[in-house]
C-alpha cells in the first residue's frame, strides 16, 4: 500500500485555535485544583515554572516543525535528529499521555454537564467521545471550525466568570496553606504542565497547515494567550475560594457561587462543558495524527496508517483511539489521568528539546540554552509527579518498547 498524504487545508489562525481550545479547556477546568492541593500558597510559583518549561518546549517544537513540516510532531523530529528509537519513545509517550488527556477532558465535561455523578456521568463522558470522534472523521476543516465555535463560547464564559468574581461580594476564605517542600511545588508545576500542552496539537498538524513556516508564530501566540488567561483565572479562584480550591471538583462554578452570584453558576457550567469539548476535540485530532505517523513507520500496527479517501483523515486511528478513551472514562479516576498524562507528555517534550539541540546552526532560531533548560525541566517535573503516575508511566513505556520489538521482528 502506498503512503497516504493529508491535505493542507488549515490556516495559521486555524492552528492557533486548535492549540488554544486544547490548552484553555485543560488548564482552567481540570488542573488548578490538584495543583493547589500540592503547592498550596506557592501555586503561582508552580504555574510560573510550568510556563517557563512550556515556553522552552514551544520554541523547540516551533524550530523543529519549521524544518520538518510533516504529521507526527516530536515523533518525526526524534526519528530524524536522534534515531528511530528516540522517535518511538517520544511518539509512544505522546500517544499514551494524550489518550489519558482525552479521558480527563471527557470526564471533566461530564462532571460539569452531569453533576449528579455515578454511571450517568460516565455515560455522558463516553457519549462525548463518540460524538466528537464522528465529527473529526468528517474532515480537518470541520474539526477546526467546530473548535473555533467552542473556543469562542469558552472565552465568553470565562470573561463572564472573571467579571462576576471581581465585582461580586468580597469573600474571606481560609487562605491556602504553605507547601511542605520544594517537591510539592515542582509536583504542582508538573500537574499544571498538563494545562500548557495544547500547543503540541499545532506541531502534530504540520502536514495540514498551508504555510508550515509560520507554525512557530502560531505556537507562541497560543501559549502567550493561555499564560495571561491562566494567571487571571488563578488569581480569581484563589481570591474566591482560598483553601477550598484544593478540594473543588468544579472550581469556577464554586467561585461564582462563593462571591454571591449563584445566578451565573449554570452559565459557567455550560461554558466549562463547552471548553472541555473543545479540548477533547483538539486532543482527538492530535493523537491520531501522531498515531498515523507511527503506523507509517511500523511503530504501531500498519493498518492505523489508513487515510479515508473522501475526508482525508486517519479514520482507523480515530476509531482505535475512541475505543481506548471510552474504556478509560468507564474505569479510571480524573486526577490519576492528569498525572499519567503529564508524565507521558513530559517524556515527549524531553525528546523534543534533545532533538532541537542536535539541529545545525542554520536551522536554529533560538538560543541552545533554552533547549537545555527545557530538557532538564521536563525530566525534573516528570520524576516529581505523584509516584503512582511515574510508576504507571514507566510501565506503559516498557510495554510499548516490547510491542515495537514484536512489530518490527523480521
Question: What report would you give on this structure?
Answer:
With 410 residues, this protein is mainly α. It contains 15 helices and no strands. It has a single domain, classed as Up-down Bundle (Amino acid/polyamine transporter I). The model has no long low-confidence stretch (mean pLDDT 84).
Describe this structure in a few short sentences.
With 410 residues, the protein is mostly helical. It is built from 15 helices and no strands.
Q: Which descriptors would you attach to this protein?
A:
410 residues; mainly alpha
SSE layout and pairing:
Layout: H1 12-39, H2 43-67, H3 74-81, H4 84-113, H5 118-136, H6 140-167, H7 182-193, H8 200-204, H9 215-241, H10 251-258, H11 265-296, H12 315-329, H13 334-357, H14 368-384, H15 387-407
Helix pairs in contact: 1-4, 1-6, 1-7, 1-9, 1-11, 2-7, 2-9, 2-13, 2-14, 3-4, 3-13, 4-5, 4-11, 4-12, 4-13, 4-15, 5-11, 5-12, 6-9, 6-11, 7-13, 7-14, 9-10, 10-11, 11-12, 13-14, 13-15
